[in-house]
């Protein structure tokens, strides 16, 4: 028995015995685990060093040069900003005037240098202007192709404003300070804001909080928007087919809107939708406002 025990212990604790083999196995396993961890860390570092591949954006298909009046406009491809009422790649598309000569307008045609646009949304709808696609600029290269009108009255329905209350009788330079032509609404607005800010010191008189120019001056109107000229208002009505019988029920418009164009030393032009024509009114009366922009 003692001999057997001795033989067994010798086998277990010899150089190639069971205990030494077990210790070698554990040590080998630990080394393999360490090697594997080092390999994983090396792969992870290599992945971090790789330059990320940017997703490939699908090319945007530019729209053609046919009229896109009546389409919606979105500067960022997300928020719809207004309705297109003039396309400078085409010019006039629905006549040359809104009812009579006071509503005459000419949309200048530009054959080159205009921005390119794509359809960012196939169909968008409003109660006033119905379903149409939405256009968005592909980039900022080039000049704005379109004139757009806000989808809502400034300040909301029934809100109205003086044109410039103290200017009544004081606009001696009315024939040169503003213009009635299409395309002059932005410069008209800038000119009138400067007059209003000057007040009685080089302007047309004291400032009234309800003068529409004060809202521009105080930054309460959205940047880049302006009061349209008489010609631009006429184009908005005529190009979109707005008249005295459908302006309210179909297009949800108010009955009268100020333009940025002066008429005499005490009057400015307004669009009277109830009669479907342009009309002059004293600047001390109140009227609704819908803002325009280029796009």
Summed up, the domain count is 2
Radius of gyration, Cα only, in angstroms?
37 Å
Arithmetic mean of pLDDT: 89
Poorly predicted residue ranges: 1-5
- Overall geometry comes to globular
Number of helix segments?
Answer: 6
- The rounded distance between the terminal residues' Cα atoms is 106 Å
Strand order of the largest sheet: 3-4-1-2-5-11
Helix fraction?
A: 25-40%
* Strand/helix succession: HHEEEEEEHHHHEEEEE
The total strand number stands at 11
What does the main sheet amount to?
Answer: 6 strands, mixed
Strand content: 15-25%
Category by helix and strand content: alpha+beta
Could you describe the 3D structure shown?
This protein is α+β, with helices and mostly antiparallel strands and 295 residues long. It has two domains: 78 residues, no CATH class; 134 residues, no CATH class. Helix content is 26%, strand content 19%. It has six helices and eleven strands. A six-stranded mixed β-sheet has the order 3-4-1-2-5-11. A three-stranded antiparallel β-sheet has the order 7-8-9. The N and C termini lie far apart (106 Å).
């Amino acid at each position: 028995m003692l001999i057997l025990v001795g033989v067994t212990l010798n086998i277990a604790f010899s150089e190639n015995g069971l205990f030494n083999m077990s210790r070698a196995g554990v040590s080998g396993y630990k080394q393999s685990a360490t090697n594997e961890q080092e390999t994983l860390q090396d792969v992870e570092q290599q992945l971090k060093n790789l330059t990320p591949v940017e997703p490939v954006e699908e090319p945007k298909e530019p729209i053609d040069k046919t009229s896109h009046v009546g389409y919606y406009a979105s500067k960022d491809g997300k928020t719809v900003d207004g309705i297109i009422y003039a396309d400078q790649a085409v010019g006039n598309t629905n006549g040359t005037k809104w009812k009579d000569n006071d509503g005459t307008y000419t949309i200048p045609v530009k054959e080159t240098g205009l921005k390119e646009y794509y359809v960012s949304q196939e169909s968008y709808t409003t109660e006033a202007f119905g379903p149409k696609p939405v256009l968005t600029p592909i980039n900022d290269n080039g000049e704005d192709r379109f004139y757009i009108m806000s989808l809502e009255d400034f300040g909301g329905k029934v809100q109205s404003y003086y044109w410039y209350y103290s200017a009544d009788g004081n606009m001696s330079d009315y024939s040169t300070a503003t213009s009635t032509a299409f395309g002059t609404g932005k410069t008209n607005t800038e000119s009138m804001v400067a007059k209003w800010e000057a007040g009685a010191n080089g302007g047309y008189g004291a400032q009234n909080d309800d003068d529409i120019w004060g809202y521009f001056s105080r930054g309460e109107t959205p940047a880049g928007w302006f009061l349209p000229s008489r010609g631009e208002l006429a184009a908005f009505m005529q190009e979109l087919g707005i008249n005295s019988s459908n302006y309210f029920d179909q297009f949800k418009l108010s009955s009268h809107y100020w333009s940025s164009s002066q008429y005499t030393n005490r009057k400015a032009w307004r669009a009277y939708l109830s009669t479907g024509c342009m009309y002059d009114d004293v600047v001390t009366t109140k009227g609704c406002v819908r803002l325009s922009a280029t796009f």
